[in-house]
Design goal:
By secondary structure, the protein is mostly beta strands. The protein is 0% helix and 48% strand. The chain contains no helices and eleven strands.
């Protein structure tokens, strides 16, 4: 069992930077590929970024490429999302999710992710 706890969300202004963290319980963190999703009010959940279990590969939705960076620290059981040049359209609840490296899953649609956090609110004012 893995528990994910996101933190770092808050109200910021357009153009600001923010770093989200997702802390995982347990000692099997390095066996999970990790991702960030977000959901804005009235919209469907959207994939944001993904990082492999080793941190060697990452993948982003086009709308955040060049602005967001996903990273992880397996020694600290934590995955991060550095968000720069934030825009009002980035406003959403951000969730981290874990997918076992040994099982198949839908990287962008979210199917097959074993664990989800409770989310952290990011609000970007214009």
């Amino acid at each position: 069992q893995v528990q994910l706890v996101e933190s770092g969300g808050r109200l910021v202004q357009a153009g600001d930077s923010l770093k989200l963290s997702c802390a995982a319980s347990g000692h099997t963190f390095s066996t999970y590929n990790m991702a960030w999703f977000r959901q804005a009010p009235g919209k469907e959940r959207e994939f944001v970024a993904h990082i492999s279990w080793s941190g060697g590969t990452s993948h982003y939705v086009d709308s955040v490429k060049g602005r967001f960076t996903i990273s992880r620290d397996n020694a600290r059981n934590t995955v991060y999302l550095q968000m720069n040049n934030l825009k009002p359209e980035d406003t959403a609840v951000y969730y981290c999710a874990a997918a076992s490296r040994y099982r198949s899953y839908d990287l962008e649609r979210g199917g097959g992710y074993a664990y989800w956090g409770q989310g952290t609110q990011v609000t970007v004012s214009s």
